[in-house]
Amino acid sequence: MEVMWGGFVVMILVLLALDLGVLHRKAHVVSVKEALGLSAVWIAFGLSFAVFVYYGYENHWLGLGASVDSVDGTINDGQSATLKYLTGYIVEKSLSVDNIFVIALLFGFFAVPELYQHRVLFWGILGALVMRAMMILIGATLIAQFHWILYVFGAFLIVTAIKMFFLKSDNTDPNQTIVVRLTRRLFPVTSRYHGEHFLVRAGSSASKESELPGAPEERDEAVVAAKPGTLMITPLALSLVMVESTDLIFAVDSIPAIFAITADPFLVFTSNVFAILGLRSLYFALAGMITKFRFLKPALAIVLLVVGVKMLVPETLRELFGEHFNFYLLAVVLLILAIGIVASVMDNARLRKVA
Asked: HEC string of 89-101?
């Protein structure tokens, strides 16, 4: 089983190296067309991995499907593992859309140049993968030892869903959050961007770079006032810190959601990874349109409500729907999201007619 985990991690590292080292070696503004193409590639990777899941669990490659899934007390075969993987992937992918809206707000608050937004997202999502791997490991260990914690997760998801229904997006300045204030207290911060650098040293050539290629040289008062040789972080680093912290908050919601579907660590981790990997390109494709899908947030809340209820009363639902329960859960999730998107499109068309 360790070989399977190692192989998957190596594959992900190769894909990330290809992304940063080849496709985005030079900083550039990601167009909507490029973002849509990359999103299609990442989604294709995520969906095609379901084929590997099917044959891997059907034939028990390197120990896959050898243990009981504590969520439903069954041993996953190819069909059940594939359904759980796809359901988890779609749920995690859907929840990441709400994360995109928050990232767009953060980039707006910090005035992150479009040229460097992909760099922030790349390192932010790399950190998110590490954090989620740790949370999944902890969650799987807790569930294996204390099965009753599934009910705690279920109740938490229902509370989160209710909050999503009534929580309004506000315009709180990220500079006032405890994360940014603590970062500013621990590290000196430059007063402007210095190219694509997260860190600069006062008096170095990097600290004298223009904010954007071709932009006129600007005086950075914070760098000038600092002692030569002082290591300083840039506003780009502050935006990265906020992206990391917000993903940690979103992970608190999404990790219990996937554990409502399966407790198999490999299915949980792989579905999360493929959902997150496409977040960068999805951001550039949807950031300008996300506010137009006004009914998507309620739809996501209903999805959380459904998986939360499923986690609380799994046996009752399984008796009602039989052995194809996981297939019905996948269909319900897709239907809820489709209704949210269609309702948003229809409402936008209605508003255009009124205008």
From this structure: HHHHHHHHHHHHH
Report the amino acid identity of residue 160. Answer: T
Contact 283/100 with Cβ under 8 angstroms? Answer: yes
pTM over 0.85: yes
CA distance 39 to 49: 15
Which of 54-68, 203-217, 271-285 is predicted with the least confidence, judged by mean pLDDT?
203-217
**Is residue 167 a contact partner of residue 297, using CB atoms and an 8 Å limit?**
no
Question: What confidence score (pLDDT) does residue 97 get?
Answer: 78
34 Cβ neighbours under 8 A, 6+ residues apart: 281, 284
The two tokens of residue 218 are 């600007």
Report DSSP state, residue 291: G
Q: Domain residues of the chain, as ranges?
A: 2-179+251-354, 190-232
Which three-class secondary structure state does DSSP give residue 71?
Answer: coil
pLDDT tens digits for 76-89? 999 999 999 999 99
Residue with tokens 């937004």: 117
What's the token pair of residue 348?
């936008």
Asked whether 246 and 128 are in contact (CB, 8 A), the reply is no
Is-contact 80 74, C-beta < 8 A?
A: yes
